[in-house]
Specification:
With 316 residues, the chain is of the alpha/beta class. The protein has 13 helices and 13 strands. The protein has helices spanning 11-19, 34-40, 56-61, 80-85, 98-113, 116-126, 131-137, 156-167, 203-209, 227-232, 250-258, 278-281, 297-315, and strands at residues 2-5, 23-25, 43-48, 67-70, 89-92, 148-152, 171-175, 181-187, 193-199, 212-215, 237-241, 262-267, 286-288. The strands form three sheets. It has a six-stranded parallel beta sheet with strand order 7-6-10-11-12-13, with helices on both faces. Helix 11 links the parallel strand 11 and strand 12. The longest helix is centred in the last third of the chain and has 19 residues, at 297-315. It is globular, with a radius of gyration of 22 Å. The termini are close together.
Length: 316
């Protein structure tokens, strides 16, 4: 039985699948050729991440598909309900990348409060000629400790982000209508643990109280943060989106950055992905990364192994 991992899979995942008797193909097939490749090579399982889209056309064209797997959390690039109506199993790995995404949130947070995104652009250009001027320009950093982090969406990644924030000494608040309260158990290296209980609050109050805001929501039909929402926020708020493009109105975000309402933003995802707007890419107040939240070796190992175990359980 053959598996096409069109957006790649870790060696640990390949090893587990091959030991179970599967043939794993990691050839990268262009989107428009996926259906033809699946049929020509008698593929039973299609594994994707965020790049490959599995829509109705591919599902209809590939009657031999038994499983479609997503290496990660979001399933917005797969027509899940339609595939399931065709008796195709849909699997994903919601728990495997939580820590990696949460750490990227804090990479952007630390970068933003100490201006690293801008100083890393300017030091190579002016560090040898305008060192003192740059030192002065980046001298007004702030600490995260003691500040309030507002988390929108308290799923697995929101929970991991909350734990890291608490470890840094931040106050954590959150808003999630599906999770009215959340008990967090934080584990330390020596086996000790602490438990903290949080209660969801309204988005409006979160906007008003937060020094920093981090989004952890699935794909949305409308903005979670739009033009009017920025007006509710503290002056100088920092905003991070490592969740899904389209959760923030990017035009309104740029305006809020320009007028000082938002001090900085950290974006790993974009409205017009994979072609972000140039006004976003060139803005000196935005820390940028190209949708790499789950792109750590550890996360990819966990994803590959979890996908392998699910496939083996379903087909063996």
């Amino acid at each position: 039985m053959k598996i096409l991992a069109n957006d790649g899979i870790s060696n640990s995942g390949i090893d587990a699948l091959e030991k179970a008797g599967f043939e794993v193909i990691t050839t990268k097939v262009a989107q428009e050729q996926v259906a033809n490749f699946i049929n020509k090579n008698d593929i039973s399982v299609l594994l994707v991440r965020s790049a490959t889209k599995v829509r109705k056309d591919i599902i209809d064209a590939c009657p031999g598909l038994k499983i479609i797997g997503r290496g990660g959390v979001g399933m917005d690039n797969i027509d899940v309900e339609y595939a399931e109506s065709k008796n195709i199993h849909i699997i994903n790995t919601p728990a495997s990348s939580s820590e990696s995404v949460a750490e990227l949130v804090f990479a952007h947070l630390f970068t933003g409060v100490r201006f690293l995104h801008d100083s890393n652009r300017n030091m190579p250009l002016e560090g040898d000629t305008h060192f003192n001027e740059l030192k002065k320009a980046y001298a007004n950093g702030v600490e995260l400790k003691g500040k309030t982090l507002g988390i929108i969406g308290m799923g697995r990644i929101g929970k991991a982000t909350a734990k890291m924030a608490i470890g840094l000494g931040m106050k954590v608040i959150y808003s999630d209508t599906d999770v009215p309260h959340k008990d967090l158990k934080i584990h330390f290296f020596d086996g000790q643990t602490i438990s903290i209980s949080l209660v969801s609050q309204s988005l409006e109050s979160l906007f008003k109280e937060s020094d920093f805001i981090s989004l952890h929501v699935p794909a949305q039909d409308d903005y979670v943060i739009g033009e009017k929402d920025f007006e509710l926020m503290k002056d100088g708020v920092g905003i991070i989106n490592c969740a899904r493009g389209g959760a923030i109105d990017e035009v309104a975000l740029v305006e809020a950055l320009d007028n000082g309402k938002v001090s900085f933003a950290g974006l790993d995802v974009f409205e017009n992905e994979p072609n972000p707007e140039i006004t976003i890419l060139m803005n000196p107040k935005i820390s940028l990364s190209p949708h790499i939240g789950a792109a750590t070796g550890e996360a990819q190992d966990r994803i590959g192994i979890e996908l392998a175990h699910q496939i083996i359980e379903l087909l063996k």
